[in-house]
Write a structure and sequence with these properties.
The chain is of the alpha/beta class and 233 residues long. It contains 5 helices and 9 strands; from the N terminus they run βαβββαββαββαβα. The chain has a 5-stranded mixed beta barrel with strand order 5-8-7-6-9, surrounded by 4 helices. β3 and β4 form a beta hairpin. The radius of gyration is 17 Å and the shape is globular. Bound molecules: hypoxanthine.
Length: 233
């Protein structure tokens, strides 16, 4: 079966798909954590794998960067491949002084400057939110693992490079950080009647600008986030 962006058998994906932005990271997750991982998609080099984690069938496939990209992949997985849950495992910039590099944001809601939801022609502003059960289980896993985390709003920006640095304005509304994918993912989940969650590791801070982590520290932090996602998959 082929959609415009995925060529795979109908049942090739598990009910739950972990979705990092980076294709290399999806390969890392498959090779590090999944048993019997099989390559199920490689259209445009976006490798999708299905395997087992602690006996549970799980898939992993990259979204690419930005809301149009995750909008395409999550739409096709939900609507053509019977995927029920997509858990984005990404990175974000933090606006929150309590959060430091390698901490985790569980994105309960996603504000955005994207026009993605305009397609639904709603008579107001749609509020893209995560699935509550996935949020709760992610928070429980973070507690168990002793990870520093916050649950709250994230800003899904359409711009990595901003002309005026206005993104930080969202911080006055308690928004915890910025990334570029969650709002579109949450919209697609809502429209399809499916479930989504975004967990992000803080890779840079707009508050603690002097903080830098080594390659190894970053890797370890991402590893924790992936373990949280795999445990709740
Ligand atoms: N902006 C947008 N997306 C991001 C950032 C950022 O600063 N850091 C990690 N993902």
């Amino acid at each position: 079966m082929a959609t415009p962006h995925i060529a795979a058998e109908k049942g090739a994906f598990a009910k739950t798909v972990l979705m990092p932005g980076d294709p290399l990271r999806s390969e890392f997750i498959a090779k590090t954590y999944l048993e019997n991982a099989v390559l199920v998609n490689d259209v445009r080099g976006v490798h999708g794998y299905t395997g087992e984690y602690k006996g549970k069938r799980v898939s992993v496939m990259a979204s690419g960067m930005g809301q149009p990209a995750i909008g395409i992949y999550s739409y096709e997985l939900y609507n053509f491949f019977d995927v029920e849950n997509i858990i984005r495992v990404g990175t974000c910039g933090s606006y929150d002084p309590d959060l430091h590099l390698k901490d985790i944001i569980i994105a309960m809601g996603a504000c955005t400057d994207s026009n993605f939801a305009a397609q639904y022609r709603l008579p107001g502003t749609f509020c893209p939110i995560a699935d509550f059960s996935l949020v709760r289980r992610a928070a429980e896993e973070c507690e168990k693992m002793g990870v520093n985390y916050k649950v709250g709003n994230i800003f899904s920006s359409d711009h990595f490079y901003e002309d005026d640095n206005s993104g930080m304005t969202w911080a006055k509304m308690g928004v915890l950080g910025v990334e570029m994918e969650s709002a579109a993912l949450y919209c697609n989940a809502a429209r399809a009647g499916k479930h989504a969650l975004c967990i992000c590791t803080v890779s840079d801070s707009f508050v603690h600008k002097d903080e830098i982590c080594t390659v190894e520290e970053r890797q370890f932090a991402f590893t924790k986030m992936m373990e949280v996602a795999l445990e709740i998959a």
